[in-house]
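Q: I have four molecules that I believe assemble together. Could you output structure tokens for the complex as a whole instead of separate predictions?
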Amino acid sequence: MSKRKICVVVTARPSYSRIKTALQAIKDHPKLELQLVVAASALLDRYGSAVNYIVNDGFEISAKVFNVLEGENLTAAAKTTGIGILELSTVFDNLKPDMVVTIADRFETMATAIAASYMNIPLVHIQGGEVTGNIDEKVRHAITKLADYHFVASEGAKQRVLKLGEESESVFNTGCPSIDLAKNVLEKPELNFDPYQKYGGVGSSPDLSNGYIVVMQHPVTTEYADSRKHINETLQAINTISIPVLWFWPNVDAGADGTSTGIRSFREKFKPNHIHFFKNMEGEDFLRLLVNSKCLIGNSSVGIRECAYLGVPVVNIGTRQNKRERGNNILDVEYDSSAIEKAILHWLHNPKPNLSTVYGGGDAGVQIANLLAESPLRFHKTITY
Amino acid sequence: MSKRKICVVVTARPSYSRIKTALQAIKDHPKLELQLVVAASALLDRYGSAVNYIVNDGFEISAKVFNVLEGENLTAAAKTTGIGILELSTVFDNLKPDMVVTIADRFETMATAIAASYMNIPLVHIQGGEVTGNIDEKVRHAITKLADYHFVASEGAKQRVLKLGEESESVFNTGCPSIDLAKNVLEKPELNFDPYQKYGGVGSSPDLSNGYIVVMQHPVTTEYADSRKHINETLQAINTISIPVLWFWPNVDAGADGTSTGIRSFREKFKPNHIHFFKNMEGEDFLRLLVNSKCLIGNSSVGIRECAYLGVPVVNIGTRQNKRERGNNILDVEYDSSAIEKAILHWLHNPKPNLSTVYGGGDAGVQIANLLAESPLRFHKTITY
Amino acid sequence: MSKRKICVVVTARPSYSRIKTALQAIKDHPKLELQLVVAASALLDRYGSAVNYIVNDGFEISAKVFNVLEGENLTAAAKTTGIGILELSTVFDNLKPDMVVTIADRFETMATAIAASYMNIPLVHIQGGEVTGNIDEKVRHAITKLADYHFVASEGAKQRVLKLGEESESVFNTGCPSIDLAKNVLEKPELNFDPYQKYGGVGSSPDLSNGYIVVMQHPVTTEYADSRKHINETLQAINTISIPVLWFWPNVDAGADGTSTGIRSFREKFKPNHIHFFKNMEGEDFLRLLVNSKCLIGNSSVGIRECAYLGVPVVNIGTRQNKRERGNNILDVEYDSSAIEKAILHWLHNPKPNLSTVYGGGDAGVQIANLLAESPLRFHKTITY
Amino acid sequence: MSKRKICVVVTARPSYSRIKTALQAIKDHPKLELQLVVAASALLDRYGSAVNYIVNDGFEISAKVFNVLEGENLTAAAKTTGIGILELSTVFDNLKPDMVVTIADRFETMATAIAASYMNIPLVHIQGGEVTGNIDEKVRHAITKLADYHFVASEGAKQRVLKLGEESESVFNTGCPSIDLAKNVLEKPELNFDPYQKYGGVGSSPDLSNGYIVVMQHPVTTEYADSRKHINETLQAINTISIPVLWFWPNVDAGADGTSTGIRSFREKFKPNHIHFFKNMEGEDFLRLLVNSKCLIGNSSVGIRECAYLGVPVVNIGTRQNKRERGNNILDVEYDSSAIEKAILHWLHNPKPNLSTVYGGGDAGVQIANLLAESPLRFHKTITY
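A: Yes, here they are, computed for all four components at once.
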């Protein structure tokens, strides 16, 4: 019997980290054939070249889709999505997948959702049903309404997808595959590599043996003009703290350049000797880095999700993760340098929180592969009310 | 004070009919400036050139967007949407509207919704919240999740949009603007023009003075391969009926050519002398034609909507209008020639049904214009649960 | 040793007729692998579905590219070309051809030329160097400047390509592959099929046994507004002639609808009983039809090219074939009904002209395949002066 | 009488420098209205934001076109051109220019040429007819064949355009507008600004008062894989020279990142204290910097063109400027660090060359504006042989 062809479209480095164990489980499943499409910023050097990690992890790439239109404005995000539809529809025509999988809620994932649903290919959405309170939320719930299956990461998310009118036999709480990786890491948590040597980057290389913090802050799309101001508050707080800092550059987004420019300008002006800047890091190494850190600063979803399971303290800044379900490892602060500084100091002087399984127990990848193998192939649905 | 700029994107002839009174009310409103964009099949000769009616009705067109990619397959629908995003984002960049309005649920309306929402322009969706049970339903509810305001056409639709998690202050049951036209027509219902002379078309020109029926049947996207078979059932039923028939060609859709080919082949083979074929007709003329007909056959939403208010009997074929709220003017039948014939005979020998205001009372256009003038300009929302 | 991969992009029915024997020779060549891409109007029903003939002739299609943007204006031609580049670059990325072949001078062939040359794939141009005097000429010579090899159809064309600064080792006069088909047909010239039965079409079916004429007239792009007027002159001339007429619909082009509308309107008005209309015809059948006809009317290049070799008289209307090399089978006339009528009468009452090898001796396909197999793979060139 | 609308499309910083005085002359001409479209890398921060200089120089921008598709491969160049056609055809539809002007030979200028010529808008090409011997040559001569008017920069270029079969009344040797700027600069040649202070940049800030050299080296498209190797030879030569160096980053091109990565890696490794890196510089300031330098190193066309008129010595590396007409200010060397070093030392120890008017006498801008005002509006041409 021929295998069911599962086409997964990865459009960004964080999406790859989030889906990696599911990809492996699909690849290993006797009834499934993985068709991996790498697109958008996942292909680009200045957003961390997820494609290199994918290849190194032993996945074969079925198609590459270059669709990122350069431009420092929101129009470019719309056009990138339009080009994505043009390109992905050709890819789906060639690969003829039985199902298409799209991940989370970045703006360009809409291209995957539209191409697949318009071509009557059953569409699976990973990590719908969550709430945050920015543009991503429009995209996320719109994709839910285009998708035929929903593999969500938490009980709250499942309830929300059902309320959106999806049929109960199409919604499954698998937990988040990123927790699978976190589980692996927790089994051997020691920092078993030298971050400077393995990942290069720029800036000083402070000694990490007495503790360090990690920073990862992305621009927030709907507050485009403010992204530089936001990053400055964080930079100011970090500048006053003497503990070593490992800082990760933001992903692509309209506004990315406000954030990036702020960081570059700070570096030129203050030449800080306690901060090292990385472009990116392979997923497990990054988690291991977090497990051994004092805390994570910024607005990355890693703080909400993997850090809950890992028990890593987080200073969560601003609105980007608003309303997401969370464990007790989060201190929420506004874009305010003194609040940020105070929260960091709290975690430096208090014990780590307990771990939480709110985002899954570490077997999401296998659950997803099994569901993909067994679910009926259908692309016709109606609202339940 | 400068007027609020309202950009309405019309992509098909039926959408124009449905929004016309709102366009007029926007144009007439002292606080609003209308920016009318005509796109997709609304510009094309073989789908009825809505653009000509628009110009004749005295509206000024701010931009035309050609984005229909030819091709007899579903991929073309996806690519048409992708091209639509590329083009409309440029249009919005140029026109700088304060709000964008998109109508109903054709596949290409998603391009309007994505371009506007990604560019942080408040998006208004007309006629969300309805149910039918085909691909249109995915598009319709996805647009609801992208839109900031919802002007719906019935109480059922309003309840459904609220259940989808939209805030109650963003949802308004204005009724459908197409009922505004129906109300005008009911005030002077006489057939005051000669359809053959005014609209040309092909085929015989049977005498209409002793009654006639009207046919309008569109292909159903998700049943692409079957569209020719479906139309054949209708053609066979019509062929056995001797009363004059006025037949309207279908709109563009993947599958349109199955329907069109069926009709052409029927004409060549049977050379029927009781049928006349029209490409299209100006909205009010069409409603007047319906009021004076014995019944409407097919799957057009006009049967569900305007005909409810007009009290025109309808034989509704197949799944296209499944689950829509309806008055008591509807007889539902399957794709089956004898069932279709039987239902037609029913209406030929029974009294007309009473009119119903399920889709509004005839002031939707004015309500919509007032709401556009007074609603806060916002593009940031969150789900209510 | 692996075979050299030759990617041929066919974008229209006439291009296919013109390249068919070369495709066969490439397919049969021991050192070559044929990658056949079918694009643009060659895929579309209303332009004769060349794709069906291609499949029936036993060719395997490597990729289909839908890039025709609907719209009754010149802008659509530009956008169709832009979309073609987007799509074809993906196709070339997937197929990784060693050489790309583009045919003649239709506007959308520029997409093939740009995608290949920008991607550093050696580009072969079939039938450059000719002159006509309309927009096609800009495209044709621009492609010459992008191409690495030139397989031209006549000695005059070869001299012109050399004057354009191309290196002499890159220019070869192979003759036109369409003449290869003509040669086959001349070996068994009898009309061995019933055109009405085999190709359907619409209109009357006059008896052909006492002679008939053939009409094929395309709109001329740079005279867009005039295309309806032009076709009317021809229609008027044909209307006055009583001999049976076999009329072929025009190809897609900006302006096509002017021509088509003219023909449709004429049919409705005059209901002519000596004319039959075909959408298209398989190449060899069409040539056999011409060999047995009294003459060909219109502006098709078939008149200039195949008819020279076949000795078929031609009434060539207007500017489309201006300046092309020609045999003595051509009478040139302007867009003028009486001139057209007079020229037709001339050919009906005078003997047929001798055949001419100005466009080749019937072995172009084999010559082209051999050149593709043996020419160095290079994509870097400079002008010779 | 209404003014003739001249639409000039600028796609890159160097193109702007090259056309600036013509833009001013068009703006000032009583019979002309300037429509300035800024597109492609001219809009992007990391390629020098030509758009900022354009605004600062007082030009009003009629439309911005974002069409650069990110991707480190040649496919992205093809797709950028395809998107350019889609966008520019909309722009021309809106602006309705009487003539369109495209500049030189960058790959994306083909988008301007195709959109304008397919839409029957008279196309003017600035700086056709030159020779270099790389991909640019295909683009340049192909645009000549699409263009209706040719305003060339040298007598050799004029002769070449005529040989390409263009009519003599369409070809004018105006000289290069960049020489107009050079003429202005020569009238007041003193270095009247502090480059570090005015333009920022990174790296050391060596004292310039005892002489300095300038470096500007672009990747060569058809030698993509080698771009990093090429830049390394230059970096090695520069590293052995102790005189201050002002280095300018390359423009966007497939391969740009090979060059950029080489430079970044060199900086990290050698931390050179005699080199300052600039992203870009306003045209006149850059020329003034050159006039006061010891010599220019690299492969910029500024070396061939403006430096001829300015009498600035040049070490021209590699094939990019192959075969261009040149004054006696050029020393040509291969990609070889010792040859580069030797050539630099030659110029450091020998007198400056005399100036040359091979690329014009400094009134090109005014000549171009006058020709645009007086030339017949035509878009129909034929080859002269």
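A: One point stands out. Chain D has a mean pLDDT of 92.
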